[in-house]
Design a protein that fits this description.
alpha/beta, Rossmann fold, UDP-N-acetylmuramoyl-L-alanine:D-glutamate ligase, 2 domains, 19 helices, binds ligand NPW, binds potassium ion, NAD(P)HX epimerase activity, EC 4.2.1.136, Nnr
């Protein structure tokens, strides 16, 4: 699913208005009606107090139009206009007049009075600012937002939480609505997915307001949101007359004394994701433990006891997956140096592979085309240097990906796969996965898909999605805290099955079945 910029949404608006030959207030009417339907379905006329805080732009207009629907259907509402500017939008004014025609007079707030009382058991509709916010709110508006946040009332944000920018982080974190639920129009917004701004969104849902399908389909976006509909078509079925050679050979290089587990996890994940064969190259100390813990993995031991001193890559290996638990001994660094200068095939670099690259920036130029790097935030910082905020981080990663023609998998709550100027934001996964070794599992999964013939971008996106899905299935049985990387591997198979599950039929469909 595409993630549009604010400008693209405004363009979609205009395109739709022209093509459908409608006035702009029709779009506002649709937006308000969709929100009303959403609320009405859940509230069923319940007499809970609903406070609507409306700005003076189109986001505010949505709120004012919504108030009309709520009033017509007997809800107990109170409408406030947060009067932060004289520049009221045309459609806001149209809807304000419609409200007044119904003898409903909002209370105008201008910062000269105490903020209205809101009880914990009330509902707040936040329609103060939408995607048009372009500077920090005035202090009194920010304080009003803070006041609503501490009220404890259930807060439903229209389009985006007020105070959230589309392209940068807020100056004052207290001056952003902390939304229990965001009803966003047509497409999700990029700040929902970044660590510094996603914290303001508990849950979000999309409402279809009928923006023009041609515009939505043909417009290129800088980001996409990856769910099941995006990954399913990537799947390459396994065929009957095939053998293990068909599904590639992953060479996993890494491990050091005390960290043989990392290579075990990556190797086992690669096999479990479908690679035909996996060979692990590890220091001698890991030979027995690895052979006995995963008998399917072939093991080649280094002459050195505790760390790697040589990498042996042959034509039989289709993919190299490198760095998990590897350490950064001088001789390991030298081996990496020799390897990266001559290897040109498919490559996944994780953990200490990334740390070595960070310490020896001259080696970055030797990365083979479409190498896949899987840094967590600290590794990324070592690789790229510091950044001002999450938005700048994304720009730095994009520039890095373009310069070195590589793919960066930016691990986090919403892992983002970046290739060139584009980012693919993952939808699966959960906080239970913030535990040692889950990154090693991911590296093995990416390598496995590469070995099976998936393109580098597809392998990255598919592995990230499935890794998160396995995590989601695993916590359903284990809970967050008891989640371990080994358990995650146990759920890779189920996550493939989940991909092909058909949705449960709705209750009425079930009844119709014979
Ligand atoms: N296609 C869709 O998705 C549809 C979207 N719709 C809705 O429209 C919303 C976007 O509406 P919007 O453009 O009028 O902007 P909104 O956020 O209401 O702000 C209002 C104005 O405030 C100003 N301003 C900015 N920062 C400020 C500040 N700190 N302090 C004071 N003023 C500030 C700035 O104007 P400026 O003063 O800069 O000229 C800005 O224009 C969108 O989120 C959705 O809810 C639907 O109605 C129809 C279909
Ligand atoms: K809002």
């Amino acid at each position: 699913m595409k993630i549009f910029s604010a400008q693209q949404i405004y363009d979609a608006d205009n395109f739709t208005i022209t093509k459908q030959d409608i006035s702009s207030d029709i779009l506002m009417e649709r937006s308000a009606l969709r929100i009303f339907e959403w609320m009405h379905q859940r509230l069923q006329g319940a007499q809970v107090k609903i406070h609507l805080f409306c700005g003076i732009g189109n986001n505010g207009g949505d709120g004012i139009a919504l108030a009309r629907y709520l009033q017509e259907n007997g809800y107990d509402i109170k409408v406030y206009v947060v009067n932060y500017s004289e520049k009221r939008s045309k459609d806001f004014l149209i809807n304000l007049d419609r409200l007044k025609d119904r003898k409903l007079w909002p209370e105008f707030l201008d910062g000269n009075h105490d903020a209205p009382k809101v009880q914990r058991e009330d509902i707040v509709v936040d329609a103060i600012f939408g995607i048009g916010l372009n500077r920090p709110p005035a202090p009194w508006v920010g304080e009003l937002i803070g006041h609503l946040n501490v009220s404890g009332a259930f807060t439903l944000a229209v389009d985006i939480p007020s105070g959230m920018f589309m392209e940068r982080i807020p100056e004052n974190p207290e001056h952003v609505i902390r939304a229990n639920y965001v009803l966003s129009f047509q497409a999700p917004k990029i700040p929902f997915f970044l660590p510094q701004t996603g914290i303001y969104v508990n849950q979000w849902e999309l409402l279809d307001i009928g923006l023009d399908a041609e515009y939505l389909l043909t417009t290129q976006t800088a980001f996409e949101f990856i769910g099941k509909p995006e990954v399913l078509p990537m799947y390459i079925p396994r065929l009957k007359f095939t053998h293990k050679g068909t599904y590639g050979h992953v060479l996993a290089i890494g491990g050091s004394k005390g960290k043989i587990g990392a290579i075990r996890l990556a190797s086992e994940a690669a096999l479990t994701t479908g690679a035909g064969r996996v060979t692990a190259q590890i220091p001698k100390c890991g030979y027995l433990p690895l052979q006995t813990s995963v008998p399917e993995v072939m093991v080649e031991a280094d002459d050195q006891e505790d760390f790697l001193t040589n990498f042996f890559v042959s034509d039989s290996h289709s993919v190299v997956c490198l760095g998990m638990g590897m350490g950064q001994e001088d001789k390991t660094v030298s081996a990496f140096n020799r390897f990266i200068k001559q290897y040109t095939g498919p490559l996944v670099i994780d953990a200490d592979g990334l740390n070595i690259l960070a310490k020896h920036p001259e080696l970055k130029g030797h990365l083979p085309k479409d190498a896949i790097l899987t840094p967590h935030p600290k590794e990324l910082k070592r690789l790229l240097g510091d950044w001002k905020d999450d938005f700048e981080k994304l720009e730095l990663v994009k520039a890095f990906s373009i310069k070195y023609k590589c793919i960066v998998i930016l691990k986090g709550a919403h892992t983002i796969v970046v290739q060139g100027g584009k980012g693919f934001i993952n939808s699966t996964g959960n906080p239970g996965m913030a535990t040692a070794g889950t990154g090693d599992v991911l590296a093995g999964m990416v390598a496995s898909f590469l070995a099976q013939g998936y393109g580098p971008l597809q392998a990255s996106i598919f592995a990230v999605y499935l890794h998160g899905l396995a995590g989601d299935l695993a916590i359903a049985e284990n809970g967050y805290e008891a989640m371990t990387a080994s358990k995650l591997i146990d759920f890779i198979g189920k996550s493939f099955l989940e991909l092909f599950k058909r949705p449960e039929p709705a209750p009425e469909e079930q009844q119709q079945q014979p």
